[in-house]
């Protein structure tokens, strides 16, 4: 019901209750059975009880629970998919595997052959390349549906999005050499990359990103650097579901808590955008946060599938906001 490690007071209560229940079980059940009279009758009663419990358990399992029980009636406080399965299936059903083939062959996969590399149109020239880790990947569906007339491709790798990283080198080579690709969107789990940059380079975070952006600019690409979304300390189940005995139905967190690292990378993004007119920042925090707090749902719609990845609703919501913010992407 709490979906992750419960609060300290809940854990203390659970431990005290377990001690009380263990003592009651010993006093009222174990001692009378072990040391009382009528041992033969008690043996038969215990055997019959075990058989009844076993049958009841098997019956409940086959029926997938007792849905009439009030505790089993989970109420969705906010509508939206959670976990990765629904999101991944949607991509496989509605989009095409990415090109060129040599990049596709090096792509990551959830469960082979479920490749994590898609484009929105099958045969049209690619106009927009979305490059980065899973924080780039979750922007693809929303952008693809917000730009139905344009072929947009999503190239996903682990680690920092960098031209020096071996995992990204073939991607950047392909993008730089493709004259049809006019715009490149770089997105990443930036707060994590502040600590862990590419292992294939001795450069720091800022120098590595600057080198990558400059290589794209030299190839006459328009570069967009996507600010990251908030990362929450609780699972979206707490926001999506409410149960009769659940102590929390939580969707909001203090802004300072969920936006760690933002103040360390965002000024650098601003500096790069100020220095070159072909570099723009895609702002995203403003669509989930106000001055004091950030939320993973709005107006009954859940936007997150885990603590730091958008679900289908969230991708669509943010995709439309990005195009409103940067309408030139539609050209």
Structural summary, described in words:
The protein is α/β, with parallel strands linked by helices and 331 residues long. It folds into two domains: 8-68, no CATH class; 85-330, 3-Layer(aba) Sandwich (Rossmann fold), CATH 3.40.50.1110. Helix content is 44%, strand content 13%. The chain contains twelve helices and 13 strands. The chain has helices spanning 8-35, 39-62, 85-94, 101-105, 134-146, 166-177, 190-193, 205-218, 237-240, 255-258, 262-275, 312-325, and strands at 75-76, 96-97, 117-119, 128-132, 152-156, 183-187, 222-226, 241-242, 252-254, 279-282, 293-295, 297-298, 301-302. The chain has a seven-stranded mixed beta sheet with strand order 2-3-5-4-6-7-10, with helices on both faces. It has a two-stranded antiparallel sheet with strand order 1-8. 32% of the residues are buried. The mean pLDDT is 89.
E-strand count:
13
By CATH, the topology of the largest domain is Rossmann fold
Q: Briefly note the structural class of the backbone.
A: alpha/beta
Distance between the termini: 47 Å
CATH architecture of the largest domain: 3-Layer(aba) Sandwich
The first-level CATH class name of the largest domain: Alpha Beta
Characterize the biggest β-sheet: 7 strands, mixed
Beta strand %:
5-15%
Question: Helicity level, as a percent range?
Answer: 40-55%
> What's the tally of helices?
12
- Radius of gyration (CA) equals 26 Å
CATH superfamily of the largest domain: SGNH hydrolase
Low-confidence stretches: none
């Amino acid at each position: 019901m709490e979906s992750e490690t419960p609060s300290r007071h809940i854990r203390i209560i659970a431990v005290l209750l377990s001690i009380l229940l263990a003592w009651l079980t010993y006093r009222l059940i174990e001692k009378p059975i072990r040391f009382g009279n009528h041992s033969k009758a008690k043996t038969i009663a215990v055997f019959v009880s075990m058989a009844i419990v076993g049958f009841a358990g098997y019956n409940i399992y086959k029926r997938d629970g007792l849905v009439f029980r009030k505790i089993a009636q989970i109420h969705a406080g906010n509508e939206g998919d959670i976990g990765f399965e629904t999101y991944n299936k949607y991509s496989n059903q509605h989009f095409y595997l990415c090109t060129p083939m040599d990049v596709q062959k090096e792509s990551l996969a959830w469960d082979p052959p479920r490749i994590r590399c898609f484009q929105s149109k099958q045969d049209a020239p690619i106009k927009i390349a979305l490059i980065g880790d899973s924080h780039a990947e979750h922007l693809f569906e929303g952008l693809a549906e917000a730009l139905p007339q344009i072929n947009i491709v999503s190239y996903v790798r682990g680690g920092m999005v960098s031209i020096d990283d071996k995992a990204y080198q073939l991607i950047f080579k392909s993008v730089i050499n493709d004259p049809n690709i006019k715009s490149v969107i770089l997105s990443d789990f930036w707060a994590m990359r502040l600590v862990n940059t590419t292992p294939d380079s001795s450069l720091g975070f800022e120098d590595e990103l600057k080198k990558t952006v400059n290589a794209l600019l030299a190839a006459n690409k328009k570069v967009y650097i996507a600010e990251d979304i908030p990362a929450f300390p609780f699972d979206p189940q707490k926001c999506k579901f409410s149960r009769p005995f659940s102590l929390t139905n939580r969707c909001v967190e203090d802004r300072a808590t969920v936006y760690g690292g933002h103040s360390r990378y965002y000024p650098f993004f601003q500096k790069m955008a100020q220095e070159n007119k072909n570099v723009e920042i895609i702002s995203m925090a403003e669509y989930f946060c106000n001055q004091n707090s950030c939320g993973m749902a709005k107006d009954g719609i859940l936007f997150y599938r885990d603590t730091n990845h958008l679900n289908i609703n969230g991708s669509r919501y943010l995709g439309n906001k990005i195009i409103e913010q940067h309408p030139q992407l539609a050209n």
